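User: Design a sequence. Structure:
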């Protein structure tokens, strides 16, 4: 399987505007390709003097695209695409071919019930058959369903149903429908689809990412319940942890098989294993402890933590619920349950869970902060700000609270206040790359370009390999018409990732700003080699050629 360079890096702060333009360019390219095939088919009908009512093949333009985003972000992406495709994007030519005459039917399919057969469901939905672009939401809700048969033997046994459906869609639906399927889903589902079952997708799969800071919840939630000893284990070297593991193993072996002390030691060793990123072994330790005492709420809780850390959030949810069943006032289990549900995109349930945590511990600032972040992801930024402030009233040095408040403020255009919140976060965590990067973006959106560059410089000093920061720094420098410095910044980005088409494109724009048109065209050509269907790059290259006196 080939897909866009994507390391699933949770720390990679992709520029949503860049990702959107790339997604829009891909959709425009699909529409242009469809028009070309339809025109060729019609011409063939005319040349062969066949009945003019003969239908050309409908499979032109068929493709599968994956988009990583939260549900509210998905709704906004769909609105922007409809707006831009349906004639309101007048900033540039759409492609080498004019797509204005294509019937641009963009539709949404929300899966809100169990679907036994995706192809049959689509066949029954006559209202979707004329779609050029079909956005699909909700497919991640059915990841636990299973299907057997219908695929190659080596990959057919116990495959999650949506994966089988998508594979069948890729193989069979193209024969009957000229639809470009755009699946919108959160990170856990996208990672599951493309990393776990690559054999199902034999053709190129396009991936676009619109990450929120939802994953920051992981930093404060998924911690083993083991008191000070767990913290000590996390700070040990690997050699020290291995030595401690052997010591604990001897102590465990010396205990009676069903003793309480054996349970305690198994869980302590499990914490040691998690601290060393050996989560599957830690789960096995919890299983041994539960074989001795099934009602041990800490064993269920710690098992859930280990599952969450390896992104098996669905199983983690059930384990937290087991812990709560044995200890209903276990506020940390309620809190972590909320975070696991958030990772699964089950936001309303997550908020209910955070409310239960706050019922049993009203001063738990993390639950207020996490609740705020979920509201932000749901697009309810005013509520998010309210809960951030409740968290910060309880603990003024709560860095995640200041960060989340800044994120919500920035989302509703209150950039000056957002910058002030980033500044408060930096008071307590001055060496955090992500905070400096977020501050730079807020300053850029606010129009304070000089200070934005200074913040990008701080982010780069902390993480020199962040090519997004280097490239965004170059974009801001170009806005100040500091093109030489901008080119140098884009060059740094390309030293880190030479396959970033947007960096080549941005470099070409800076060169064009200096009047170095031939060099600009060279940069555009490098960008086009990487992303040949990006209409913005093609348009900029045409403009550069016109400046050199060439006409189309």
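Assistant: Done.
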């Amino acid at each position: 399987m080939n897909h866009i360079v994507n390391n699933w890096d949770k720390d990679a702060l992709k520029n949503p505007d860049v990702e959107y333009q790339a997604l829009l360019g891909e959709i425009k390219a699909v529409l242009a390709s469809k028009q070309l095939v339809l025109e060729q088919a019609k011409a063939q009908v005319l040349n062969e003097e066949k009945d003019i009512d003969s239908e050309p093949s409908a499979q032109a333009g068929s493709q599968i695209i994956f988009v990583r985003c939260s549900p509210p972000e998905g709704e906004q992406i769909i609105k922007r695409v409809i707006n831009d495709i349906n004639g309101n994007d007048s900033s540039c030519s759409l492609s080498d071919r004019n797509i204005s005459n294509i019937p641009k039917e963009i539709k949404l399919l929300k899966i809100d019930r169990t679907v036994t057969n995706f192809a049959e469901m689509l066949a029954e939905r006559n209202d979707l058959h004329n779609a050029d672009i079909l956005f699909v939401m909700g497919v991640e809700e059915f990841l636990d369903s299973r299907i057997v048969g219908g695929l190659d033997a080596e990959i057919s046994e116990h495959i999650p149903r949506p994966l089988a459906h998508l594979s069948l869609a890729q193989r069979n639906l193209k024969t009957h429908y000229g639809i470009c399927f755009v699946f919108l889903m959160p990170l856990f589902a996208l990672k599951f689809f493309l990393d776990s079952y690559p054999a199902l997708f034999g053709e190129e799969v396009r991936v676009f990412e619109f990450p929120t800071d939802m994953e920051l919840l992981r930093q404060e939630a998924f911690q083993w319940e083991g008191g000070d000893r767990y913290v000590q284990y996390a700070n040990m070297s690997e050699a020290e942890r291995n030595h401690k593991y052997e010591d604990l193993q001897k102590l465990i072996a010396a205990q009676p098989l069903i003793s309480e002390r054996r349970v305690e030691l198994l869980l302590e060793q499990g914490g040691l294993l998690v601290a060393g990123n050996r989560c599957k072994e830690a789960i096995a330790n919890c299983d041994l402890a539960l074989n001795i005492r099934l009602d041990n709420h800490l064993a269920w809780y710690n098992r859930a933590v280990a599952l969450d850390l390896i992104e098996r959030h669905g199983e983690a949810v059930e384990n937290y619920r087991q812990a709560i069943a044995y200890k209903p006032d276990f506020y940390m289990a309620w809190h972590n349950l909320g975070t696991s549900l958030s990772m699964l995109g089950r936001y309303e349930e997550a908020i209910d869970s955070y409310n239960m945590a706050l019922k049993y511990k009203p001063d738990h600032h993390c639950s207020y902060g996490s609740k705020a972040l979920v509201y932000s992801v749901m697009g309810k930024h005013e509520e998010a700000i309210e809960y951030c402030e409740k968290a910060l009233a309880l603990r003024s040095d709560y860095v995640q609270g200041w960060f989340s408040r800044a994120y919500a403020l920035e989302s509703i255009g209150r950039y000056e206040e957002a910058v002030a919140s980033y500044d408060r976060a930096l008071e307590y965590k001055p060496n955090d790359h992500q905070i400096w990067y977020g501050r730079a973006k807020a300053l850029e959106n606010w129009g304070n370009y000089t200070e934005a560059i200074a913040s990008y410089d701080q982010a780069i000093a902390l993480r020199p390999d962040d090519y997004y920061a280097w490239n965004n720094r170059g974009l801001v420098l170009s806005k100040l018409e500091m093109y030489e410095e901008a080119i140098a910044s884009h060059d740094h980005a390309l030293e880190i990732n030479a396959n970033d088409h947007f960096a080549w494109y941005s470099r070409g724009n800076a060169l064009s700003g200096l009047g170095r048109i031939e060099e600009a065209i060279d940069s555009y050509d490098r960008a086009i080699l990487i992303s040949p269907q990006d209409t913005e790059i093609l348009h900029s290259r045409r403009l550069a050629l016109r400046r050199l006196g060439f006409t189309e």
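Confidence is low (pLDDT under 50) at residues 1-13, 52-59, 89-103, 144-160. Strands lie at 63-68, 106-110, 133-137, 146-147, 159-160, 180-185, 206-209.
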